[in-house]
Design brief:
homodimer, alpha+beta, Glutamine Phosphoribosylpyrophosphate, subunit 1, domain 1, 6-stranded antiparallel sheet
């Protein structure tokens, strides 16, 4: 989720968490990261999201954030343990970077010669470390989000050839999303309507929780609501979201 | 806390959290990090620990860990916000490193030329980044805990001259604690006794929650219990704890 006003994710997370073992088979752990300014709240758990006490906290405690990345895991590479739960976090240029991956990069272990090393054993964290290494090499100082988008567009095709590589990346200023197989997004803005979750019998009238200036973009691997129009990504598309709007 | 068996901190944290605004004036945020193998659960909040919903979760949900670092903040440098909450986390050599600081390093901003930069504005995170930078330069590969202890003993005096620098550092394998002004520790082992918290009317019979082989070391800035014998650190002392025992 990327927004122009700090927004809570309790509604979306309620549906999303059901996919962690109840309505879907992604039961091998989960995680979520909320930026608050430059700071970060990072929660990971190797219990299924539908049973986790930490997930229960997130559902009930409305943490407000402008950039949130959440993930529920179906283990393809790497054991079910805490260090293999997404999203992963690293610091670069005095900002935290958060990364979550959906997909499988078969036999792709690019060489890591920089200062980022995986702690766990997933293909995903390895790919993230490589991405951070290459970003660090590409810019002497902190680039702006448009420059970062150009760099990512050069780097990402080197992965995407190796397997499925749908990912979310944020540094708290923007959200970058890449689809190699499937990803959908929605931009919610005034006039806000009522949305109905597809994974649980729950609806919300966003008009009651928003102001006319609010803009919220949500990017997902499968639409979370049944009565809204979600836009599919084209294969290979890398999108930039800033302040709740798609910018590139 | 450093132990030989995964142990929960609900008892100690109950007393500790009271110091975050109730029995003490450390009300400018708090944080706690639990290692589980190489993985890490990291919770930070800029609300006082005695009121935080996340602290309430920690008090009730027994997360078991062999290495835990917790901190409640009294802001001396840097605003009250999430990015300034301890403990701080960085990755080095494929391990997470967790750091919390009690004290004040006046006008001490050593040059950061490596790959670690502070995200917030505290003297503490700056010191941590410098420590990580110097550790990274001192060893080509991953050193063992004894080698790391020697390196830390060389590095730490360069800070300690600049102000008060009580800190805790862990990479999930060991806990390093340094006292420049005050720090106390206890090693609990068989036979376990009943302990009474000094900050809340609560006691626990550890014998009921432990096995004879368990060993637990707890290091604090002020003793947490009234009926146990805590050992004070000497000024300038850097201690290493492994498997619930002081090793150096």
């Amino acid at each position: 989720m990327n927004c122009n006003t700090p927004t809570d994710v309790t509604f979306s997370f309620t549906g999303f968490a059901q996919r962690g073992g109840r309505t879907d088979h992604h039961a091998d752990g989960w995680g979520i990261a909320f930026f608050e300014d430059r700071g970060l709240r990072h929660f990971v758990d190797h219990q299924p999201a539908c049973e986790s006490p930490v997930a229960e906290l997130i559902r009930r405690y409305p943490i407000k954030s402008r950039n949130v990345i959440a993930h529920i895991r179906k283990a393809t590479q790497g054991a079910v343990n805490l260090q293999n739960c997404h999203p992963f976090v690293r610091e670069l240029w005095g900002r935290y970077w958060v990364f979550a991956h959906n997909g499988d990069l078969k036999d792709f272990r690019p060489r890591l010669h920089g200062s980022f090393r995986p702690v766990g054993s997933t293909d995903s964290e390895h790919a993230f470390c490589w991405l951070m290494q290459e970003l660090a090499k590409s810019h002497a100082g902190v680039p702006n989000v448009e420059e970062l988008t150009l760099t990512l567009r050069e780097l990402v095709p080197r992965f995407a050839r190796q397997g499925s590589f749908n990912f979310m990346l944020s540094n708290g200023q923007a959200l970058w999303s890449h689809a190699s197989t499937h990803l959908w997004y929605i931009e919610r803005r005034h006039p806000f309507l009522t949305a109905e979750l597809s994974d649980e019998d729950l609806s919300i009238d966003f008009a009651q929780h928003t102001t006319p200036n609010d803009r919220v973009a949500v990017v997902v691997t499968a639409p979370l609501t049944v009565n809204e129009t979600w836009t599919p990504f084209a294969p290979g598309e890398l999108a930039l979201f800033v302040d709740g709007q798609r910018r590139a």
